[in-house]
Amino acid sequence: MCTALIEVTLWMAVFAAAKTELIGGFPKESYLAYAIWAAFMARISVSWMYEFRMIEEIDSGSINHLLVRPFTFFEYYLSQMMGYKLVTTLFSLIVPFAVSTAFDLPTDATKLPIVLLLVFYYLILVHILSLIVASIAFHLNRVHSMTVAKNLGLWLLSGELVPLDLIPSPYKETLLALPFCNAVYIPVGYITGRLGIEQVYAGFASITWSILIFGALSVVMWRWGIRKYVGTGA
Amino acid sequence: MEIAIKTEQLSRTFKSYQKPEGLLNSIKGFWNRQYTEKVALAPTSFEIEKGKIVGLVGGNGAGKTTLLKLLSGLIHPTSGTAQVLGFKPWERKPEFLRQMSILLGQKNQLWWDIAPLDSFAMLAEIYDLDKAKAKTKVSELAELLDCSHVLQTQLRRLSLGERMKMELIGSLLHEPKILFLDEPTIGLDIVAQTVIRKFIGDYVKEKGPTVILTSHYMDDIAKLSDQLFLISQGQFVYQGTVQGFVSKSQMQQKIHFALAEKLNQDLVLKSSHPEGISLKAGQQEFIISVDQENIPQLMTQITQLSGLSQLRIEEADFEEVIHQFMEAESRLRKTRHSN
Q1: Which site from A216, B2, B88, B249 is most exposed, i.e. has the minimal number of CB atoms within 10 Å?
Q2: Domain total for chain B?
Q3: Is the ipTM of this complex over 0.90?
């Protein structure tokens, strides 16, 4: 909520200083709505807690009790994370929705289902990235710092800070070609009226190819790690 | 004879980084790493029949847990291969994992923050068990282990003995065909040890899984095992029965005897020892330690003593034999390290 407030204040100050009705073709209300929804989407589409736990399991050897069960480490944590995110989404959705309604900010609630579907699809990619980082814990200690670096990178690429269409070319095109804009920019842009449905479809496509590429990398990393694993502490 | 577990030249070597002291040396370690290798399990071949309980005995660092980790698929071997119920364990195929269970006495495998009943419900889902049947099974096992009253208490709030009972229930819920028990009675008091030992014995008799059991309590091994595997410094040094091992050992046996009256003069019993065994005048009860080979000769002489009122031979105790073996191994290890 703090981030949202800061961003709202920032955009109000930018519009006041610029003495203009439109920036990048959109009015102040559009940016305020973006700031409110971006804070919400960014919290949903990031994985700190479960990535930390995955690393901790490998580091401490408590992963042993999962490795001997008939499921994979990936699906065990994916199901936990998805369950947690679903509950969090349902409860926290009330806040941006209430604020947008109260201040009459441009938000199309009918677009929310497909947008949430996109974000939850993106979470699969996020979880794959978590598995890649966690797999490094088979080789190194203190891998948590990599989570911090990775999530900082994803935050910058997601569009939470500023709508990505404000970024000059060719950086804008590069950022939009990456799958990470599906965390914030695409879903928020769509429900606040900046983007059309075709960008959402393109988002699904970019997540799909990223899942394939990073998924393959995660399989390699996991297998490499598990071959080196010494069953720590048992 | 159906084989449940088979290994061929199975081995595992651990490589560890020798980190020198200090920050500068840590940084140097990025490009100039010093590694040491330790053979945790030397190439090992054995077969275990279905339904047998094998006691795996060895000192700390002998390679017992490494073997269990290999056979349960937790780690990959450095060389060789193993088949457990026809599967390569480290491939961790779901069909294999559904038929196997490992209990690590020093590690919690149930979920720490929730009540065991919830953990068991989760395990029932994981193993695709019928919910009603799983509930009945939990009740039965809890009854046998006398721990029904703690099933709804958070795991973290249970005593060590109660936790171990819960771990056992969790391990047996899906009725595994292969059961690896690593120190199931470690840290428990005598009463809890006895309860768990009896439970394991009864369960195995009823359900017939193949079991590999490691324990530092030789009573566990002696009372439960059909076969004994003795492991030292990563190598198998004995494969056979507990009795076979005891009789093969050089451990002395004890002859206890008593006379109706005190011995009136010193007496020497002939044995392979040149000086024989001397019995002092004025004594009435005697305990002599002898090698097995001397027993027949000495027994002949003792039974001829006038006024013999009691006579018994005390078999060498398994625990003592193992203790002696481990001491010898420990000395050997120290000698090797110092060289």
Answers
A1: B2
A2: 3
A3: no
